[in-house]
Amino acid sequence: MPVAQVELTKEKIREIIAKRAAQEFKRGDVVTLGIGLPTEVANYVPDEMGVIFQSENGLLGAGRLHQGESPDPRIINAGGAFVEPIKGCCFYDTQMAFTIMRGGHIDATVLGALQVDEMGNLASWMIPNKLVPGMGGSMDLVVGSKRVIVVMEHTSKGQIKIVKNCDLPLTARGEVDLIITERCVFDVNKNGLVLKEINPSFTIDDIKTSTGSDFVVDANLKEMEV
Predict the structure, then answer these.
(1) The whole model's pTM is what?
(2) Hey, which end of the chain has fewer CB within 10 Å, N or C?
(3) Whether residue 56 lies in the annotated active site
(4) Is 44 helix (H, G, I), strand (E, B) or coil?
(5) Contacts of 174 (CB under 8 A, 6+ apart)
(6) Tens-digit pLDDT profile for residues 90-123
(7) Active site residue: 24, 40, 56, 182, which one?
């Protein structure tokens, strides 16, 4: 399938996605961010929102990515990046981290994906012992969180990532609630995908040709803030 020809830099794509995802939280939410692009979401959440970021390696109260020199080498997120702890944060072991994740204590999880299909099935890992992502704690996160938000580029090297049926190994079935890409925002419900927002640089036809599944267009379709 051909994809839209609107050119965006890698940095701008990540910014658009992270900023949009940051709008999804409520005051006081406990949120887990997956490795890679999802960790950038914290940079766009206002401090006054009181959102508490949990890192699966054992930190409740992870702040923004460390920007200065001489970071504390002991304080990192699940992706190994240095982060700033917020006042009142706490540290704990892996057992407690997964108890929090599996026990329904996470209000929202934001993570990347290799594929998502129209029924909210998620594929975010591939074959062990290969130079591709492993599953990490994503299986625990997506079934334990109250809401699952996938953030990813709409396509990867011309390959469609939002598909009718995932053909990669599944991380979870029917757990994805929202998909945010640089091109649009899809709500996922029991009937399939609903196009809620669109980047004004793209048309609905662009979205159709770069998406491998059917979707309906919301009657109140909005423009994404880019």
Answers:
(1) 0.90
(2) N
(3) yes
(4) helix
(5) 119, 120, 121
(6) 999 989 999 999 999 999 999 999 999 999 999 9
(7) 56
